Amino acid sequence: MQERRWAVIAAVLVGILVIAAVGWVAGRSSAPEGSDQVQGDGGRGTIRVVDGVPVGIEHSRAGALAAADNYVAVSSETVLQDPDRYANLVREAYDTTYQATAIREGEALRKKSTETLANYDAGGRALAIVAARRLDQYADDRARALTWTAGFSWGPDRRPGQRWFFTETSLRWDGDRWRVERIDESQRVAPAPGVVRYPDKAALRVETLDRELRDMTAPSYGAVSP
Predict the structure, then answer these.
(1) What's 127's domain CATH number?
(2) Can you give the residue range of the structural domain that contains 74?
(3) Is 121 within the bounds of a domain?
(4) What are the φ/ψ torsions at residue 45 (nearest 5 degrees)?
(5) All residues at 6 or more sequence positions from 89 whose CB lies less than 8 Å from its CB, including other chains
(6) For residue 40, pLDDT beyond 90
(7) Model confidence, pTM
(8) How far is CA 23 from the centre of its chain?
(9) Which three-class secondary structure state does DSSP give residue 191?
(10) Across the chain, how many H-helices and E-strands are there?
(11) Which end of the chain has fewer beta carbons closer than 10 Å to its terminal beta carbon, N or C?
(12) Per the structure, how many domains does the chain have?
């Protein structure tokens, strides 16, 4: 009996070590090369909020990553749910050569997403969260990032759901901020963590999500306080 107890304890300790190791690797893989902190050199914030939109203002690897984080999170969360805020994002953070295309793409997506829009009209909600990201290219005034994103949605007539996807973002530094030259959901299948099991389904009820997540939106990554 005692040997069995020690075997269980050993298994638990190994599990804790594995989880810690995975967390450390994930943190290292998402950290910008040549920088220990996403906040950038000198502790200066990499993001400034303009008209409700977080824009990348630091010309560095960390700044490019923070810009991509925010642009992906905000565009994913607003393109269907909040067209006005999406339009603000396009105006403040997209390259002028891409703005008209981005607006047309958003309108086309809304036209074919009738079920999702009906959910929002009925009081449904969605959140977008950046789980991890990688800077695949950085050279002077150009950068390209790959972002692993999770989208969570719920509503009165829809079961709470989650979707995991990759987004590829090309950025250009214009002398003032990082601007999106192109942003696309990748055709590659993104990995999805296993569904968390709850002792009961209270945490998945629409009224629970509405109450506990009221007024929450995607965070601003690398932001400086106003």
Answers:
(1) 3.10.450.230
(2) 50-212
(3) yes
(4) -65, 145
(5) 53, 71, 74, 75, 78
(6) no
(7) 0.75
(8) 18
(9) coil
(10) 6, 6
(11) N
(12) 1
